[in-house]
Design a protein that fits this description.
Blueprint: H1 2-9, H2 13-30, H3 32-35, H4 37-44, H5 48-76, H6 78-99, H7 103-117, H8 120-128, H9 133-144, H10 149-164, H11 166-176, H12 178-187, H13 200-203, H14 210-241, H15 245-273, H16 275-294, H17 300-328, H18 333-345, H19 350-362, H20 366-393, H21 404-420
């Protein structure tokens, strides 16, 4: 406990909390269409492929909007950028409340929901910006735990939709976003670090390296799998097991909450066992549980337990990846993390589409699960090949941080890699 108090004193705790709350509310709104998908499907009589398209658009749009929001933050500051984004979210929710009348309107609403999904990079940079390098990883992990907002969304949105109508939930969301806006205005302070002033070249530098793409692919499975499955599971539970719309959200919440709760633990265990070792276990568990989920569709209890294990692994994987980011990019951690987050989040858009197409053309969701499991295995094999070089250059065996004495010796080498990007 004293160590955690020391961590809080090393930075600005109110800004950290404001960033967490902002990210949590943004995640909650980002997956609203997924949380309400059974209601929306009933209204418009959607085919499985249409459901997959509807659910993938907010994820893809959110990933693509992260970089423009990061650029905006360079010019007006990260705190101001969050306020602009939350204002736009409120306007988008009002559009959903008043203007969605058809399936095409719903697709447009999916693009607007992507505004909320753009929050990741700015939230992490704002929350960790006040903290010294030795604590940035923990700060980023705590802000990242705001993805618990997805669990809140699938728990709260279905009962509201059932009681007041699903479009009314957009109106509630427009009012709810005022709370993190107020907290941001009152408590947050713009950090003094230089992440927000990085050039365009510095923002995309990691994508000129194999490591940047490798990290993005890993994150595409861990975070992409998390957000994609969270968005899709209410539909899956409702279609596959015939549970009520509210129960589908409750069952999804059990899995989504596990991912958010275990994320910080993933970073903690990676500090001790190494991020590479942790990610190896994560990807094996994810692949195995997804295959089992695909072929355990007759048992609601078994499927729910498997999803809880799978989501726990995904959450740990998100924390493990961001334990490695500061080791690989010690001088531009937030900038590299933001870009990796943007590219990796695109992987989430594959999940609903794969599930919808699998159901429409094979009559079963099983092959959608198998597709993502195969992707996880492919990423695991890639990582195990690349880690040979990683553990010779910037990390200890297994992906642990190098000892302090070695850090000094390695800094020129790491800086050289940064300059060559």
């Amino acid at each position: 406990m004293s160590g955690f108090r020391s961590f809080l004193r090393s930075g600005h705790a109110p800004t950290l909390f404001a960033a967490f709350l902002y990210f949590a509310f943004s995640c909650c709104i980002w997956v609203l269409n997924g949380a309400m998908a059974p209601f929306i499907t009933e209204t418009y009589q959607l085919t499985p492929a249409q459901k997959g398209l509807m659910l993938s658009i907010p994820i893809i749009a959110g990933a693509l909007m992260r970089f423009p929001l990061g650029v905006l933050a360079q010019y007006i500051g990260r705190k101001n950028a969050t306020l602009v984004e939350m204002g736009l979210i409120a306007v988008a929710m009002l559009y959903g409340f008043f203007m969605v009348k058809s399936f095409n309107d719903l697709l447009a609403m999916g693009v607007l929901l992507g505004i909320a999904g753009a929050s990741f990079g700015v939230a992490l940079s704002l929350g960790s910006g006040w903290f010294p390098p030795r604590h940035k990883g923990l700060a980023m992990g705590l802000v990242g735990a705001g993805n618990v907002g997805t669990a809140v969304s699938v728990l709260v949105a279905p009962p509201l939709a059932q009681a007041f109508g699903w479009q009314t939930v957009y109106g509630f969301a427009a009012a709810a976003i005022l709370l993190p806006m107020l907290v941001m205005i009152v408590f947050a302070k713009e950090p003094p670090d230089l992440d927000a002033h990085a050039s365009f070249r510095e923002h995309i530098a990691c994508l000129f390296e194999k490591d940047g793409w490798a990290f993005s692919l890993i994150y595409g499975v861990t975070f992409g799998g998390f957000i994609g499955l969270t968005t899709f599971l209410p539909t899956y539970y409702y279609d596959q097991f015939g549970v009520s719309k509210v129960q589908a959200g409750q069952l999804t919440m059990l899995a989504a909450f596990m991912a958010a709760a275990v994320r910080v633990f993933g970073g903690w265990i990676s500090d001790r066992l190494g991020g590479i070792n942790t990610l190896t276990a994560v990807l094996v568990i994810v692949a195995g549980t997804l295959v089992l989920c695909g072929f355990a569709s007759a048992s609601l209890a078994a499927t729910t337990l498997l999803f809880m294990v799978c989501f726990s692994a995904l959450g740990a994987g998100n924390g493990a990846l961001f334990q490695l980011v500061p080791l690989r990019w010690p001088l531009t951690t937030a900038v590299a993390g933001s870009m990796i987050g943007e590219i990796g989040a695109l992987g989430g858009g594959l999940v609903p589409n794969a599930m919808g197409l699998s159901k429409q053309y094979t009559g079963s969701y099983a092959w959608g699960f198998v597709f993502f499991a195969v992707l996880a295995v492919a990423v695991l094999l890639m990582m195990r090949v690349m880690q040979i070089r990683w553990t010779r250059t910037w990390a200890e065996k297994g992906g642990r941080a190098r000892a302090a004495a070695h850090d000094v010796a390695q800094k020129p080498a790491v800086q050289g890699m940064e300059r060559s990007a």
